[in-house]
Amino acid sequence: MLEKEFPKHLEMRITDEKGKPVENPDYKPFLITEILGALVNRYLEYHGFEFVGEKFKKLYDEMTEYVYSKTRKLIVVSPLQNFELKDVNEILISNYRVRELTDWEMQEFISHGYSFGNVFGFGSDFGIIKEKYCVETVVNTPKRHTPPLNQYIEDFITVLRLFKHGNVEHEFILHYPKVWKTFWGMSGASEDRGSILAPQYVLTKEDENSLTLLMKQYLELKYKFPNPIKFAIRWFNKSYRETNPMDRLLDLAIALEVLFGAGDRLDLCIPCFIGSNKEERKELNRNIKKLREIRSSIVHGGFYKVEQEYVETIENIFRCCVLKIMNLLPRLTYENIMKSIREKLLE
Known about the structure:
Elements: H1 2-9, H2 28-47, H3 53-68, E1 71-79, E2 83-86, E3 91-93, E4 96-100, H4 103-111, E5 133-142, H5 150-163, E6 172-177, E7 185-188, E8 201-204, H6 208-221, H7 227-239, H8 245-260, H9 266-274, H10 278-301, H11 308-328, H12 334-346
Parallel strand pairs: 2-8
Antiparallel strand pairs: 1-5, 1-6, 3-4, 4-5, 6-7
Helix pairs in contact: 2-3, 5-6, 7-8, 8-11, 9-10, 9-12, 10-11
């Protein structure tokens, strides 16, 4: 069956020594080495030398599904840096799974130059590996080419950061077929990463439901976000790649200005938008006025000693603003949200 039908589904051309396509080519060598050979090797890897018909048929069905399918499912895996799961081995977040890396995955990352913490190695023989957790998702792609995969991981990292405080990051991405693992590939993050600042991002089982709801909400809205929200989140994510608290604060200040388009009126807009009572609004007003003063000092003086605690305060203000806008977007446009803030200020 395979010998007869396989060439109809094979996306390749056999050429002669001059590079011209060969008419009625012989596919048997490719069929034997790349498909049937892979089938035998996979069986030996999983089940050893003892032949069991049911086990062989299961692998055979996987192989034929891969050969005849026009698309393929890729498993996409990226180690989570500065990250910890607490009191649980794995968590499911929408179509993402957070789990421990397998030894094989660690070996592949290291063979491509990835350093787990300060350890170049895998398994207990190489000491403690810090980044043992990863995020995994399954992506349906065409067989002919592999699309950029970084965005799938970036979406997950963004939602983690919007969910709560903690400096989580990723760097490398491994991908391989879910059904028929005959190849794998590696790619890096889209932008350079700086040194990761504390604190560690900790996820618990109690976070699973709330984080899943936020992930679903973000993925439904992200393609509808107007430019101010898209670019504000971009600056928010950029702040995590900074190695200096002053630079982080500048990025967050820009993120807030882009989000509201308010410039010097942020100290009025933000308290009006997220302050739930008079005391909260006063505190927000003080923090945003301080942000404006610090930014002015940096612009005119070139430097300002910024405390990490204050950076985290501004980060959380941005987080609260974006989450509230996301909650309002299903029934209000971004323009109407901004208009309602201005009207409230005039009252």
